[in-house]
Amino acid sequence: MSNDLPPMPTGPEGFSPLPGAGTPGREHANPPAESPSPQPEGLLLSDQFRHDLAGQLPLWQKAGLVPAAGAATLNQWYRLDQLGAESGSLMTRNLFILGGLLTGGGVLAFVAAHWEGMPVPVKLALLAATWLGFHLAGWWLWTARDREALGKALIFVGCLVFGANIGLIAQIFHISGDLFRGVGAWALGTLPLAFACASGPTGGLSLLLAVIWSLGSSFWNRPGGAGWSTAWTAFMLVFPWILAGVFLALARQARSRWLTSGVVLAVLFTAIPAAAASSDSEYGVWSTTIALLFLVLIAAEAVRRIPTLEDTGHDLHKFGFAICVFLAFVATFKDIWPWRGLRGIEGIGWLLPLLVIVGLAGWLLREESRRAAGQPWRQVRLATLTGGAGLLFFLLLIQSSQVAAVFVAHGAFLCFAVAALAPGVGEADRRSFWTGMGLLFLLVVARFFEYETSLLLKSVAFLALGLGTIYAGNAYERFLQRKEAPRG
User: Fold this and answer.
1) How does pLDDT run across 420-453, given as a tens digit for each residue?
2) Is 426 in contact with 438 (CB distance < 8 Å)?
3) Residue 239 near residue 214, CB atoms below 8 Å
4) Which of left, alpha, beta for 164 (phi over 0: left; psi -120 to 50: alpha)?
5) Maximum Cα–Cα distance for the chain, whole Å?
6) Cα distance between residue 273 and residue 31, in whole Å
7) Do the beta carbons of residue 288 and residue 275 sit within 8 Å?
8) 470 contacts: CB under 8 Å, gap ≥ 6
9) Fewest CB atoms less than 10 Å from the CB: which of 77, 240, 334, 476?
């Protein structure tokens, strides 16, 4: 067997895609079945893994590692013959949505150009015709012409037109008031269509609007005001669970991985108004937000170890990590400090949801730390994620001091950079390694433009950064070569 044979991809915790793999001599112990066996439970269906397997399987067959019957079984289990159609369908759907958006924008621009001279009945008729036109055309293309992707794209655009119509009708009749009530009406009007056509993008639009309504209406009407009756407070406390039940059902119907991940994030962030409902405390809201972000990061570590939810775990980690990095990066700029004092630090109502969230995150962290025993890079990632979130929380306590706040913010940002670098070393993941290096480069560039120092000093700093990046890249590639070299 040649040494340049590509490695066999494996799933988490040593999972092997081949029946009987891991036990010498079992690959060909039994004669191949005449027909592929049923798909087993708990199969790893990550898109990335399926693409890797599709690329490696022909090489394994050529090398004699996998018989034809075994290759057919793997092809059936992992639906490898559908990868091309899935990729093409996704691109086609995105192009149709983009084209529909441009078409809708053109229609709305035409309406706006003649808006002032139109009588009110004509305006209403035109708005209704535009809205219904997109929906009816989309439904007809989908059901009668078998053009599902284009039909759903037009229905999605119709939902956007519905939102624009809400604003235009309010303008026609000079209706003023809470902006977020219109957003809530938009979300409710979009949701039935998302269920009717089992559309992930339309469901995602409704979910996003629901989250905006929840956050916006909560902060628009401060706790204790007229908008915060006992019934309203109770509703905001149960709203995240209502959201979860409705949109997880939609995600299951639409078979949308991204919508599933979005639902989890939406539930977490609609819990922020629940924290605000506990007391009139800005400190409680911000601290709860940071705790929720930390919970997302740690929960993602646990979720992506589950074969059927690996993609969802990766999505949660990306979303949560990106938000944490953004907050830490913004906090590194000295001009935003000292910040104004946060109200409500003396209250205790916000402590209950915060303690629940921190307790759950702490339990998950302990469980993940146990599983990371013997894997130093996993321990480093968990420690740096915890440290970064802890430093963001500490910023709330020292916000009045510019020097201390900037120093702590840099520490949080560096923790997240190291958390990105850790899988690059531990799992030989080039993408993670260069993400971490890119974050470090971004931090240096930001300080270059922020601080007024001599150009000579800046040139030395950039030369050192450039040479250091080249050295680190070469050292990392040599490390990967040594790690991937066959052991004789």
Assistant:
1) 888 877 777 778 888 888 888 888 888 888 877 7
2) no
3) yes
4) alpha
5) 85
6) 61
7) yes
8) none
9) 334
Long-range contacts formed by 366-372: CB under 8 A, 24+ apart: 367/302, 368/298, 368/301, 368/302, 371/305
Q: What is the pLDDT of residues 281-299, one digit of tens each?
A: 566 667 777 777 787 777 7
In sign, the C-alpha dihedral spanning 363, 368, 373, 375 is negative
Measured between alpha carbons, how far apart are the two ends of the chain, in Å?
13
Q: CB of 413 within 8 A of CB of 329?
A: yes
Distances (CA, A) of 366 to 91, 237, 298, 392, 427: 41, 28, 10, 20, 22
Q: How far apart are CA 249 and CA 267, in angstroms?
A: 14
What angle do helix axes 148-172 and 120-143 make, rounded to 10 degrees? Answer: 170
DSSP readout, 127-192? Answer: HHHHHHHHHHHHHHHHHTS--HHHHHHHHHHHHHHHHHHHHHHHHHTT--S-HHHHHHHHHHHHHH
CB–CB of 25/317 below 8 Å? no
Burial environment of residue 248 by CB neighbours within 10 A (0 to 12, 13 to 18, 19 or more)? middle
pTM flag (> 0.90) = no
* Alpha-helix runs per DSSP H in 348-375: 351-371
